[in-house]
Design a protein that fits this description.
Length: 90
């Protein structure tokens, strides 16, 4: 419900054709943030295999994910920061 692709997204946009009718912002819980974060860390484990040279962007992103709960006061703030984070490409 709160996910857009591979990142947390709390906004939903409703259109009538091309005209934006309404924007709704949902709240998320820490459980949702942690669950999605854990999945993303597992999916990115391939970047940390011994036979690969992990880029600094991946190192930084994985650290960002691990630090989400302690770096933000609310789950909504964490989700919004994650939504703005530039996720590295494979």
């Amino acid at each position: 419900m709160f996910l857009n692709g591979d990142i947390m997204n709390r906004k939903r946009y409703f259109f009538d054709g091309e005209e934006l009718l309404e924007t709704i912002t949902f709240d998320v819980t820490w459980e949702q943030v942690r669950d999605k974060r854990d999945v993303e860390l597992m999916k990115s484990d391939v970047q940390a295999l011994p036979d690969r040279n992990m880029s600094q962007e991946w190192i930084d992103y994985r650290q960002f994910l691990r630090d989400l709960p302690q770096n933000y006061d609310t789950a909504n703030e964490a989700a919004d920061a994650w939504n703005e984070y530039e996720i590295p490409e494979n």
